[in-house]
């Protein structure tokens, strides 16, 4: 036992700094959040702190805005990963082609994922402005098309958030699939060519199944990022019009920093954390099952 510990000690020492940082920045705040969710903390002083039991959690479950935000978040978290995957896989096939401009194409499609989401949000808010001054509406006006209320009508507002987020991340996720594509042995395709397989058959029976592990990573990242999304819809629509693009992260921040109800906000965070954990475990098991199949 001592010999085994002596052998593993150098490796443990290497991960110790990362473990300490993770504990300080993640584990301790998580435990504090859980504890504060049972109090009436106002965000400033601990002197008037008192235990309130499950009061904050009851307030959360009775909050209509939280229910609306949760429905919006669930809708977004289902639709966005699906749409992004549908576009990312074909894009990765294009980027994997032998065209002379493939390196330029990779850079062009990857670039939107580099700037901050808040910057992209304000940029696209100008482009999609529902007035005639919006860049996109000006372009449509050249063809005699009336201005579209991109950010002023509920159905168009959510569509706009989805569209902008898709534009910003599809290239990044295409690169995940591209890395997996480049690891597929060429012998599989050569054997398929000998058998007279069509391009669709090669994609269906070779390419797509071999992308399973990349899809697990991509969909997991998309799901988690969709659930905790805040900056892009905030910059584009501030959760409006009405509550049509209000997500859970916006409600939590509004409750804590605007309404100064930190106890309720931490209760929201705790509930949402558990919800995300459950969904993530289910999604991961389903994707892993697909990899095995």
UniProtKB/TrEMBL annotation:
Membrane topology category: Multi-pass membrane protein
Keywords for the protein's UniProt record, in alphabetical order: Cell membrane, Membrane, Transmembrane, Transmembrane helix, Transport
Limits of the ABC transmembrane type-1 domain: 70-283
Pfam family of the protein (one): BPD_transp_1
Residues spanning the membrane: 12-31, 75-95, 107-127, 156-179, 205-224, 265-284
This protein's record includes keyword Lyase: no
Listed InterPro entries: ABC_transporter_permease, MetI-like, MetI-like_sf
GO cellular component: plasma membrane
Compartment(s) where it occurs, according to its Swiss-Prot or TrEMBL record: Cell membrane
Predominant location: membrane
Entries under PROSITE patterns matching the protein: ABC_TM1
GO terms for biological process, alphabetical: transmembrane transport
Family named by the database record: Belongs to the binding-protein-dependent transport system permease family.
Protein name: ABC transporter permease
């Amino acid at each position: 036992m001592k010999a085994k510990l002596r052998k593993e000690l150098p490796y443990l020492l290497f991960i110790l700094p990362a473990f300490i940082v993770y504990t300080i920045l993640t584990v301790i705040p998580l435990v504090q959040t859980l504890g504060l969710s049972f109090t009436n903390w106002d965000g400033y002083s601990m002197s008037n702190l008192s235990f309130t039991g499950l009061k904050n959690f009851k307030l959360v479950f009775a909050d209509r805005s939280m229910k609306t935000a949760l429905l919006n978040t669930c809708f977004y978290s289902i639709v966005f990963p699906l749409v992004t995957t549908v576009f990312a896989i074909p894009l990765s096939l294009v980027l994997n082609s032998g065209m002379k401009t493939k390196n330029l194409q990779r850079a062009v499609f990857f670039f939107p994922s580099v700037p901050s989401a808040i910057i992209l949000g304000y940029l696209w808010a100008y482009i999609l402005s529902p007035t005639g001054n919006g860049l996109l509406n000006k372009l449509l006006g050249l063809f005699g098309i009336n201005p579209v209320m991109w950010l002023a009508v509920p159905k168009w507002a959510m569509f706009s958030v989805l569209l902008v987020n898709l534009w910003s991340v599809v290239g990044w996720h295409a690169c995940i699939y591209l890395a997996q594509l480049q690891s597929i042995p060429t012998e599989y395709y050569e054997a398929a060519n000998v058998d007279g397989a069509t391009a669709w058959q090669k994609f269906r029976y070779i390419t797509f199944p071999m992308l399973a592990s990349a899809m697990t990573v991509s969909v997991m990242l998309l799901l988690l990022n969709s659930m905790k999304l805040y900056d892009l819809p905030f910059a584009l629509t501030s959760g409006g019009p009405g509550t049509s693009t209000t997500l859970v992260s916006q409600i939590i921040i509004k409750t804590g920093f605007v309404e100064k109800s930190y106890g309720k906000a931490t209760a929201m965070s705790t509930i949402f954390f558990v919800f995300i954990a459950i969904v993530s475990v289910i999604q991961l098991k389903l994707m892993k099952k697909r990899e095995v199949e």
